[in-house]
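pls design
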C-alpha cells in the first residue's frame, strides 16, 4: 500500500485489521471470509485490500508495531524525566499490547518494514533505559540490553497475568505499569 488511500478505503482497511485481530484471537485458523464477515464487509472487499492471508498478517504486524512505536513516542521518552517517561511508555505500550494480543503474541511475518519498526522500538527502549540508568534508578554496571529484554518480558507477563480475571483492576494499564516498573527497578527483594 504505497500510495495514500481514500477515506472510505482507509476505513475499510482499519475495519478489516480490527476484525482480523478479534477473529484470529479467537480462532487462529479463521478464514478471510470469517474476517470479512466480522468486519461487516464482503470477502471481495477484503481481498481487494489484501491479496491473501499472508498480506493481511503482514499488515497486522506493521499496524501493531507502528502503534507500539507511536505509543512510545507519545510518552516523550527523550524529554520527560526518565522515571515519568518510563511510566508513560509502559502504560502506553500496555494499552497497545492489550488491543493487539493476537498479533503481538504470534510470530509476525518478517518483512523489511516490520524489521525496521522493531529495530526502532528496540533502539528507543534502550535509549530510555539508558536515561533511567543515568538518573541512578538502575545500577551503573547493569547490562542495558539484558535489562531491556527483562522489561519486554515483564510487559508480556503483565498483559497475560493469570490472576487478572479475579481482579478487574489488574487489567488497568496504569496499575500494570506500576507493577512492571516496580519489578524492573526493585525486583522481588525488600524495599527500603
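designed seq:
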Amino acid at each position: 500500500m504505497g500510495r495514500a488511500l481514500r477515506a472510505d478505503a482507509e476505513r475499510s482497511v482499519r475495519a478489516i485489521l480490527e476484525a482480523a485481530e478479534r477473529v484470529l484471537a479467537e480462532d487462529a485458523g479463521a478464514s478471510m471470509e470469517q474476517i470479512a464477515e466480522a468486519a461487516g464487509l464482503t470477502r471481495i472487499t477484503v481481498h481487494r485490500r489484501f491479496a491473501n492471508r499472508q498480506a493481511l498478517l503482514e499488515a497486522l504486524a506493521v499496524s501493531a508495531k507502528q502503534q507500539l512505536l507511536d505509543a512510545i513516542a507519545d510518552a516523550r521518552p527523550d524529554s520527560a524525566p526518565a522515571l515519568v517517561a518510563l511510566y508513560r511508555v509502559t502504560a502506553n505500550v500496555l494499552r497497545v499490547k492489550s488491543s493487539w494480543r493476537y498479533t503481538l503474541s504470534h510470530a509476525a511475518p518478517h518483512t523489511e518494514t516490520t524489521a525496521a519498526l522493531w529495530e526502532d522500538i528496540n533502539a528507543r527502549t534502550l535509549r530510555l533505559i539508558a536515561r533511567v540508568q543515568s538518573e541512578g534508578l538502575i545500577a551503573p554496571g547493569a547490562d542495558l540490553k539484558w535489562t531491556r529484554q527483562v522489561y519486554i518480558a515483564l510487559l508480556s507477563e503483565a498483559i497475560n497475568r493469570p490472576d487478572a480475571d479475579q481482579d478487574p483492576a489488574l487489567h488497568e494499564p496504569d496499575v500494570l505499569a506500576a507493577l512492571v516498573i516496580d519489578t524492573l527497578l526493585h525486583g522481588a527483594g525488600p524495599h527500603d
